[in-house]
Amino acid sequence: MKILVLNAGSSSLKYQLIDIKTEKVLAKGVCERIGIEDSLLKHKTTGQEEIVINKDMPSHTEAVSLVLNTLVSEQYGVIKSMDEISAVGHRILHSGEDFKCSVVITDEVIKICEKNIKLGPLHMPANVMGIKACRKVMPNTPMVAVFDTAFHSTMPEYAYMYAIPYEDYEAYKVRRYGFHGTSHKYVSSEAARYLGRDIKELKIITCHLGNGSSIAAVCRGKCIDTSMGFTPLEGLPMGTRSGNIDPAAIEYLMNKKGYNISEALDYLNKKSGVLGISGVSSDFRDLVAAEKEGNKRAALALDIFSYNIKKYIGTYAAAMNGLDCLVFTAGIGENTAEVRERVLAGMEFLGIQGDMEKNREKNNGKIRDITASGGRVKVLIIPTNEELVIARETYELVR
Ligand code: AMP
């Protein structure tokens, strides 16, 4: 059984074709510049060089068609016909309070996703477009929506509520939702599997550290708190996002810089974070290189990022009344030893002790245990695989 996983952005469409029996990726790629001139498809089948196809894609419908044609093409394809695709799993940003898990897509589900565009105005329009385009091109193939927020739907009320007037929460649904749910779910269950323990016995903190970063407290298999909030702007400082900031400082900055609210949000989303602090880059490889050359602000950006991770670990260990396992994942979590080293330093009181030599070993794409001997809390680096979670959940719902 083969599952096509789609992740539609405003001008892009990422895809992976996964054989669910072997969980192997048969082909993957991305359509870029959809709706813009010079659109192109980058496609890679396992063991082959990436190929680039330049083709006009005025909308996501043409992009889905091009992906399918490429997957079945004689030259670059991996399947004989579209019928071999048993189902399509769509990555959808926001479930609102309407869905607590993945669902088979129906007209009703599409309507609810459209209603929730207001909760994720940057991503949801494209997500819905992706569903509709796919329906047009493959009307008889079952489809499933897998939500980035759903894993966090188990948070208790006292963790997801903001302290604003309750009636405004009720009227406008302003609350913490959390994101990167598929990743937190995947790495927490991988941690339990790796440790040979039942996840229901474990208290795990998962640190998804990438361009966007979030941390989750996974207590006995359920998320009880997470750092991102109503939007992915809350929580840790990130590549270009500020993360937590006193809301009153925003008004002050707006007055000083003459910004309106959308300019202020642009500033907090795109010009802040480690890019804003360092003035060097949002990419942690550049920050590490700049720090080695003596750049003080790059070092400061790495310090601020790591210090904030530490604070969340302390908070969530307290929230769960203990900790068994700490997981690092995503681009920075899997690759940037300099961040992990800073996070792990001085955490012995919590039972967290990292082996700094193991921490420095290169990423081999596998799970790595970097717990120092005597460390009570297991410290693991686990490569995330959000597409595989989407494929698995799609399969579970349609089989
Ligand atoms: P992600 O959003 O998960 O793709 O993570 C992107 C971030 O991971 C960027 O800041 C990268 O600098 C950082 N990173 C550090 N080392 C690597 C690496 N070897 N490969 C990919 N990303 C890396």
Topology order in helix (H) and strand (E) letters:
EEEEEHEEHHEHHHEEEHHHHHEHHHEEH
β-strand number: 14
Mean pLDDT, nearest integer?
96
Which architecture of the largest domain does the CATH hierarchy give at level 2?
A: 2-Layer Sandwich
Quickly name the level 1 CATH class of the largest domain.
Alpha Beta
Alpha-carbon distance between the termini? 9 Å
What low-confidence regions span 5 or more consecutive residues with pLDDT below 50? none
Percent of residues in β-strands:
15-25%
The small-molecule ligands in this entry are:
adenosine monophosphate
Secondary-structure-based class equals alpha/beta
Identify the notable features of this structure and list them briefly:
399 residues, alpha/beta, Nucleotidyltransferase, domain 5, 15 helices, binds adenosine monophosphate
Report on the structure:
The chain has 399 residues and is α/β, with parallel strands linked by helices. The protein has 2 domains: 2-147, Nucleotidyltransferase, domain 5 (2-Layer Sandwich), CATH 3.30.420.40; 197-386, Nucleotidyltransferase, domain 5 (2-Layer Sandwich). 39% of the residues lie in helices and 20% in strands. It is built from 15 helices and 14 strands. The strands form 2 sheets. It has an 8-stranded mixed β-sheet with strand order 5-4-3-2-1-6-8-7, with helices on both faces. Strands 11-10-9-12-14-13 form a 6-stranded mixed β-sheet, with helices on both faces. The longest helix has 25 residues, at 296-320. The radius of gyration is 21 Å and the shape is globular. The protein binds adenosine monophosphate. Adenosine monophosphate binds at residues 210-211, 239, 283-285, 330-332, 335-336.
